[in-house]
Amino acid sequence: MRYQPVHAAKSGSVPFMLRGPKSVRTMLSAAVAGVIGLVPAVMVASPAEAAIPGYTFQSTSVSATEGQPLVFNIVRTGVAPLAAETLTWTATPSGPNAADLDDFTPASGSVNFPLGDGSTTTQTLPITISTTDDSMDEESETFTVTATLGADTITATGTITDNDDAPTYTLQLDDSSPGEAAGTVTVRAELSATSGKAISIPVTSADVTAKAGQDYVAIPANTTLDIAPGQPQSAPLTIAITDDPLYEEAEQSFTITGGASATVTGTRTATVTISDNEDQPEVTIDPTTADEGDPLKFPVRLSGPSERAVTVAASTADGPGSDLDSTTAASHGTAKAGEDYTAVTNATVTFPATTVNANIPNGSTQQNFTVSTTADSTDEVDPEDLHATISAPTIAALGTKTVATGGITDDDDSPTVSLLPSTRRVPEGNSGKVAQTFTVKLNKASGQTVSVNYLTAGDSAWDGADFTATSGTLTFAPGETTKTFTVDIIGDTVYEGNEAFDLTLSSSTATVPAPLAPVSIQITDDDAKPTVTVGSVTMAEGNGGSVAVFPIKLSNAASSNVEFAVQDIQGTATTSVSANPLPGVLDYVEPAATAIVPAGQTTGYVYFLVNGDDVYELTESMQVQLTPSSSNVAADVRTATLTITNDDEAPTIEVVSAKANEGDKVQVRAITNGVAQDQSLFSVTFQGASVKGTVAASPADFINPGVVPVYVSGGTPSGASVDVGNPLEIVDDTTSEGPETILASGTAFGAGKVIDGVVTIAASDGGTDAPAPTLTSSASYRLGVGSLRLNGTAAAGATVTLWGSPIGAPEDKAWESLGTTTANDTGAYSFFPKFTTTGWHFRTTVGEQQSNAITVYLKEDPDFYARSSSRGTAVLSVFGDPRVAGLSVRILRANSNGTWSTVGLGQLDANGKYVRTLTGLRSGASYLYKATVYGDGDVGLMTNTSKSLRIRIR
């Protein structure tokens, strides 16, 4: 059997089931042989096996080179005449290197021995099997030919000898130029042709410019690339690439070499070139300092290690370098070559090469450039600067810092600073500013310019209030030892005691002893303690919490908080301390125990909560007493009065209407509205009266109690019920009467009022209740703005009230009184309500009785005008009736076929008008128009169309 690529090239296609590894195909061949009973016979040497009587293979072992036929001769011997017989035969793979079924053909057939004559005792017939000449290098292959006659068999073995050369190979890299950070590279062997033999190719690696152990991991000894039979290539071999930190200038390479073996020919080499991923290192130099006489060591740095040594030139020059900002450079001195240091020109700084990633030698990335300095005894500017410059690097490049400043620190004593006068007190004054002079002195002259800074800062004294903060610099030229400056002291009238501010001296070129950093300067106070007054307050009570504010005034300010103990003295205004105080008793909340006038201020405040309520009460007052509790104010006790004015309505009572029968005793009651702190007194009287059209009771219908006093205790809540005198006695008579009413009314003693109530005596002795009123409308709608007649019936002489609700009105404003009238002797009555913009719901009442409800709509009655004042133009004007802005309008024109077309759409403007101008009309033509104004169903306003109007166009 051969693999598909080979057989496709030489001998056609191969059955699918036979394509696969050799071991699998061998098992399949054995399985087929087992199924058909072709178990290979044990091969033995000649003479040929004679399992079929009279039949043998001339040779039981036949061989040929692949592509040549194998001929198996079967010899029959016997007694003449030989009978005609037919043997069948099959060829099947067998042996350790079994041939595949596609290596030989045919795989079965028959041999026909003819009838012999009387003299023939031997016959020989061949079985010829062709072999396939493929291109695969493989072992010699064998198969078994089995001839069968009845139940007997004879066998022979065929061997196909290979005639192909061993394949060559190439080495394939997944990436021949990996980056250093790639991590790995893989190599595999790929055959020039597949082989039927197992192949093992020895492989080794070797340095070119790359170094094993530093740039990559070498291939271990005895490593092979193995290729299974029938496979085109080996599994990949992974070689680790080292990502080192070294700059290596160029690409690093190594080779991978494969050897030959018994099953493969030739040797091959593949080269791996590793791309370095480190940037070229940069050389920089950093600034440094040293005391005079000590060497200046400039750190010279390499940004990363290099595989080769790196050098850079370094030179010195006077003065600071460009790395120092101008402000700093201006404050330094200039070091001079030959006086302060030894000049250097083009000295070489070397960074040693680094060869092993795990062993980077010290100094590979940092070296020092050393410059000698000179010690002297001169007091000089500190520091004095020189600078070093690097240039001309090898292997590396220059970084951004190629210039660095070296500062030489002076070690000679600076002059010492003192402050005069030695007395640290200054007077305050009452106003204005007075300049106080201070002197700064050096203990010795300096050979350089000396600067002394002075700075003031508030301590107990305040900048801007007690003194003017100042700062500055005194500059001593070489040889000078004395300088002066001034500080303004601000006079005031604030009581503050003695205060102090700090005066600080500092210098970078002279020594300032500790007592001068800082010095306390005392300002002597000359002001008296302030006196105090407190103002009284009058305020309305309000309905909630509000704040009473008492201003505290000082005659003059103090420098610290002025404090007072605060005590409230109750008057008519009180602060309740009971668990359940009566309404109106809690008038205020006690003020805080302490009041403060802030330092520097002449006004402070006492404030506390005034408890506003809705309780009627008289104007009330209390007092606030202030007692000084700090020593910075005159010890006078002050009081102030708070007056709280009432702003609540006096309470009222409303007599509750009641119903009674003749002979009853009715306890009349009243409901309170509002609360008073104290008792309220009202008087109530009873008299027969007609109420909303009712019949008045006569004096004989009840016993009139006269003037009845009604007392409402202080604190009684709103909505409480109180008795109005003793029960009212209704007289039981025999007169036939309808319902009658008694009016209860009265007055209040002082503020407040009494709201009337009604006692209704039910009909008795055959009397009947008045009939309920009725209501009808003369039409279901009113056309345009105007009045409409409403008719109704009620009891003769009854007072009738008309109530109306605009259609669409909210419920809380649904019904309103539209007037009253009196029914005539027959009980008839009429109303004429006016319609403006909406329809209405109506009903009437007589006393507690009410009529049926009716609804009357308002319908638009639009006015329509048309004119043609210019050629081809018509102006159409529509006026709503009612004129309700925003109603939609449509203007229509009659067509010759009896239909109408819309020529204008719009809305009524704020004046209830809509105008549409038509242009392009035919001059002399006559047009018929009409207009529709659309109502608003939500308010009961109905849609209507105007009369048609004809116009001739100019």
UniProtKB/TrEMBL annotation:
SUPFAM superfamilies reported for this sequence: CalX-like
Provenance organism: Pseudosporangium ferrugineum
Highest rank taxon of the organism: Bacteria
Name of the protein: Calx-beta domain-containing protein
Pfam families (alphabetical): Calx-beta
Coiled-coil stretches noted in the UniProt entry, renumbered to this chain: none
Domain Calx-beta: 40-148, 156-259, 270-389, 404-506
Cited Gene3D superfamilies: 2.60.40.2030
Keyword annotations of the record: Calcium, Ion transport, Repeat, Signal, Transport
BP-aspect Gene Ontology terms: cell communication; metal ion transport
